[in-house]
Amino acid sequence: MAGSVLRLHDVSVVRDGNPVLQGVDWTVEPDERWVILGPNGAGKTTMLQVAAAAIHPSSGEAVVLGETVGHSDLSELRPLLGFASTALARRIPRTERVLDVVMTAAYAVTGRWNELYEDIDERRARRVLSEWHLDHLAERTFGSLSDGEQKRVQIARSVMTDPEILLLDEPAASLDLGGREELVQLLGGYASDPKSPAIVMVTHHVEEIPLGFNRALLLKDGRVTAAGPIAEVLTSESLSETFGVDVELTETEGRFTARARQATSD
Ligand SMILES: Nc1ncnc2c1ncn2[C@@H]1O[C@H](COP(=O)(O)OP(=O)(O)OP(=O)(O)O)[C@@H](O)[C@H]1O
């Protein structure tokens, strides 16, 4: 689509009387891949929920894929918004066949089911499974997969409908080193493909930022402390300020690591 995929203008979200997001301005363009970082409770998941049009701003304006949230019927947009989170994954029946977990994402799009669609959807689901290194697991049940495999299935499901924006809430959480690296590598390949949609990923760890991610947004207490090109925004200083810890950030060949600096005694 032409134009921005997401535009937030002076967005605030109040929950239980508490400001969770305050005065957020943010624009996401189709070729951008964003990482959102910030301390626990900073409002990261809430940002994704606004971006997914799952919640309305308490004030300000959110425009998702050209439609203003709260002023338009967004049901037609749903298939164009890919979303993967642990909360969503909990709703997937453990006994469901992996192929069906991915393929059912398409039912919501077509809203119908006949042999022609079955064929097209199954072929697409198998192709998506293969892209996420899951083809050998297509006939297994979701509950029998490892955490890493389940995470990849969630992402495969969220890209099945060929979305225009992909929103990922902590996709590498709870993965061991091998699982994390496999996922980060696959996400890196996906993010680097110009045909891929805009991507927004929330994470707690800079180590989980895949190659190809080109924008970063830092949140603290519901406010954006920095947003823009990743090389400008992700610095030792900005992370230290946002997390309230004296942090040293290192970048090696496009991947990041962060650690707290040792306190020095005078
Ligand atoms: N449904 C809700 N009702 C009341 N408060 C909420 C609700 N959802 C979130 N909050 C509060 O809003 C704040 C931001 O929550 P959010 O989940 O967006 O933060 P986060 O940055 O994703 O946190 P974490 O890193 O811990 O996942 C928190 O203080 C949280 O307790």
UniProtKB/TrEMBL annotation:
Gene3D superfamilies: P-loop containing nucleotide triphosphate hydrolases. SUPFAM superfamilies: P-loop containing nucleoside triphosphate hydrolases. SMART domains: AAA. It comes from the Bacteria. InterPro entries: AAA+_ATPase, ABC_transporter-like_ATP-bd, Metal_Ion_Import_ABC, P-loop_NTPase. Residues 6-246 form the ABC transporter domain. GO terms for molecular function: ATP binding; ATP hydrolysis activity. Keywords: ATP-binding, Nucleotide-binding, Transport. This is Iron complex transport system ATP-binding protein.
